[in-house]
Amino acid sequence: MKWRWYISKVCNKARESGATSIPTTEIVFLNTLLTTLSFYRWVDDDFTVTKIGKAMKLLTDETLFGDDLSNRAKILLERWNSGNFTPGPIEDLFDGDYFSSDDGSDSDSADERVVANSIYRDVMRGINIVTTANGRKTYSLDRRFPKRDANVFGANGLTVGDWWPYQICALRDGAHGSRMGGIHGRVNVGAYSIVISGGYEDTDEDYGDRILYSGTRGEIVLNRPQIAPITNATMSLIKSCQELGEVRVLRSSKCQSKYAPVLGIRYDGLYRVLSYETEEDSDGKPYYRFELQRILGQDPINTSRPNAEERAAFARVTQK
After folding, report:
1. Which of 87, 110, 241, 292 is surrounded by the most beta carbons within 10 Å?
2. Using an 8 Å Cβ cutoff, are 194 and 247 in contact?
3. Among residues 273, 249, 253, which one has the least CA distance to residue 263?
4. With contact defined as beta carbons under 8 Å apart, do 175 and 132 qualify?
5. 271 pairs with which residues across the strands?
6. 295 and 272 Cβ atoms separated by less than 8 Å
7. For residues 74 and 130, which has the higher predicted lDDT (pLDDT)?
8. Is the sign of the CA dihedral 241, 246, 248, 249 positive or negative?
9. Per-domain residue ranges of the chain
10. Rounded to an integer, what distance in angstroms lies between the CA atom of residue 12 and that of residue 228?
11. Which segment, 63-72, 112-121, 251-260, is predicted with the most confidence on average?
12. Does 26 or 283 have the greater pLDDT score?
C-alpha cells in the first residue's frame, strides 16, 4: 500500500535528519492522509494485510511530527486497535472524546455495578460505553450531554479536590481539554491546564506547591546540534510564562508523587509558570523544563480525594 510506504519514508527521513527536515507541506499532507484513512472502508482482512497499523504507529511520535498530528494518529490507531473500523472523523487534539479502557472495566459485570452505584454513576454521567466486535469496551462522550468548555483560564467552576476515575471525565467537565495529552492550550494565548501523569519521573519533580514539569523529549541526531523540540503544547506553556497566566493542574495516579491520588485523576488548583529552561536527560535528549508555583489563597491540595467511598465504588466497578 502506497500510504504505508509514504509514511515510512517520511519517518525515516525525520529520524535521519531531524524533525525540522519535514516541510510544512508534508505535515499538511499527512494530516489529510489521516482524515482519508479515518473514512476508509476496510474490506475483509485488508487492514491486517496492508500493515497500515504499523505505519500509523510511526506517526504517533510527537518528537518527530508534533502534538497535533501525533495525537490524531494515536486516536485513530487506538480506534482501530479496539476493533472499531467504522468510518468517521478523528477528533482533534483539544476536543477528543474517544477513549478505550485497558482495565477491569471491560467486564460486563462492571457496567451492571455502575447502574447500581450512585457515586460512580454520577462521575460517569454523560459517558457512553460501547462494546466493540472483539468484546472490548470503549468510552466516549455522549454528545447529548452538556460538555463544559475547557478553553477557559482559571478554575472554570471546579473545586480543589474534584476527582474523576478517567481523564475523559475531566474532559467532560472542562477541567482538561484533551483526553490523552498532558498539556491543553493554545500557542497564541497559553496553556489552560496540564496533567501530571508520569512518564518523565527522572526529570519531573513535584513538591506540591512547586512543580518542575518536563516537556517532550528531543531525538539525538548525529552531527547536528541537539535542540529541544518546541511543540504546540510546549509553546503554550512558554506563552503562559510570558503572560503569567493561571494554569489548572491535575494529578494522575500514574505519576510517582506523594501528592498524586491513589486512583484516577484529581484537580489540585491553579499555578503560574514562573520560568523555563532547556535541559538534557540521562540519554542526552534535550527537553524544556518548566517551573510552576501554586497561587496563594486557594484551598490546600486535597490528598483525601478520592475518599474511601469513592475508592470503594471504583474498586467495585473495575474489579480492582
Report:
1. 292
2. yes
3. 253
4. no
5. 247, 294
6. yes
7. 74
8. positive
9. 2-82, 149-319
10. 20
11. 251-260
12. 26
Give the residue-averaged pLDDT of 273-285. Answer: 84
CA–CA separation, 114 and 145 (whole Å): 18
C-alpha to C-alpha distance for 43 and 56, rounded to whole angstroms: 18
Judge whether 92 and 72 are in contact, CB under 8 Å. yes
SS3 6: helix
| Cα-based distances in Å from 292 to 206, 225, 240, 242, 277 | 10, 28, 10, 13, 12
Type of residue numbered 204: D
| Residue 101: other Cβ atoms inside 10 A | 18
Cell of 300: 490546600
Most confident region among 103-117, 185-199, 295-309 by mean pLDDT: 295-309
Identify how many contiguous H helices and E strands the chain contains and give both numbers.
10, 11
Given a contact cutoff of 8 angstroms between Cβ atoms, the answer to whether 228 and 214 are in contact is no
The residues that bridge with 278 in the sheet, in sequence order, are: 288
Rounded CA separation 40/19 (Å): 28
Assign domain 149-319 to a CATH class. mainly beta
Task: Determine how many CB atoms are found less than 10 A away from the CB of residue 42.
Answer: 15
Question: pTM score, two decimals?
Answer: 0.69
